[in-house]
Amino acid sequence: MSSLQRHIAPDIHHIPKIDIPEFKTDRWSNNLQLHYLKAGSNEVLRLEIFIRAGGYYSNNILTPGVLAKLCREGSDSYSAKVINEQLDYFGATLSLSASSDFIQLQLYCLSKHLKDLLPYIKDILCAPLLDEKSLSIIKEKEIGRLNISNQKNDFIARNTLDLHLYGPDNPFGYYPKVEDIEDIKLDDIRAYYKQIMFKYPWEIILSGQYKNSILNDLKDIFGDLSFEQNNYIRLNTTVFSKPDLNYIKKLEGSNQAAIAIGQLVPKRNDPNFPALAFLNILFGGFFGSRLMKNIREDKGFTYGIYSSLRSLPLNGQWSIYTEVGLDVYNKALDEIKKEIQRLKKEEVPSEEISLVKNYISGSFLASLDGPFSLADRFKSIHFSGMDYNYFNFYLDEVRAMNAQKILDIANQELFNSYHEVVIA
Fold first, then answer.
1. What is the distance between the alpha carbons of residues 290 and 306, in angstroms, rounded to a whole number?
2. pLDDT digits (tens, 9 = 90+) for 79-115
3. pLDDT (tens digit, 9 = 90+) per residue, 239-249?
4. Are 223 and 389 in contact (CB under 8 A)?
5. What is the distance of C-alpha 176 from the center of its chain?
6. Mind listing the domains of the chain with CATH numbers?
7. Least buried of 28, 321, 330, 356, by fewest C-beta within 10 Å?
8. Which of 72, 61, 296 is nearest to 169 (CA)?
């Protein structure tokens, strides 16, 4: 029996072409789409309902989020107490939220209990109570959360950055104010519900292990809904176009500085997006990134610094975030800019390129573990207007990255024009 050679790293194996379990789609006569995947070993499922009623469709960006919370507070047939008791009885978890595009309902439950829960789900969405008492409680809670958040430098920095990237009329740029929450009126919420809730066909995403009869149960419940039109029209899509911003705000009593740097980039369906994703990981997207090695490990300016690349409905966003001591934020900014210039001017060593390739490949495989992760991957392509071929394209592009391609994409896309925010 040979002994383990712990000083020898295991061999690295490249990922071949991948075959991801694919969602199937049924389009019903009312144009509602059901996307479903049966996977996993446990009799648990996740039901998601997407309604095109998010911030892009409202003249008041706060309205969709408040409407989502109000729907959770009872319906014409069931009080919030009854709904919560039923969820507890069946061991289910229910949440409603709003994003730029959608009001989204998400339910986790044992597969055998979905049929019992569906009448409550339908009533929450189709006949919500929308009462003044619940609205007052929601407004009070939201104001409390906002007041607490506005004491945090990182919250102010992120929101200030987004405000200057997108502008106040875009869902991603809107920075909420207490008076805006106070001004929310129940009549406006009810009017928006009537206008938008059944305007565009819903989409349902079902993932987990379940009996085929559940598909019929869903159709029995939601198949009789009617919708006005198929082609959706977003309202608040304007992106602010302002000169580069260097914004510093001093706060009394602050003991650290929050830094947020960002720019707009292409979104996921752009051919350069995989290369941008690779560059983001290398630059600041994992614990071994250049930003972490320099700003955290070498200089000791922070406990954590990272960059992020987001693909949004209409564009992408590349950002850097960190918090550092008040006495070193200028030095931290200088080092961040040095790292940007390094990527633009110096070839990345092959060992570092291999490290990032292996990290991305391993993270991608981990993201396919289980039916709910597969559903998240499906949503990333479906709502971007792409199909499953994208994943192999993405991995092929990552495998093809080399020092010259990194220089090219860094000089083409990386912080040639950007906004810089410091809250200290």
1. 9
2. 999 999 999 999 999 999 999 999 999 999 999 999 9
3. 776 667 788 88
4. no
5. 19
6. 24-222 (3.30.830.10), 246-423 (3.30.830.10)
7. 330
8. 61
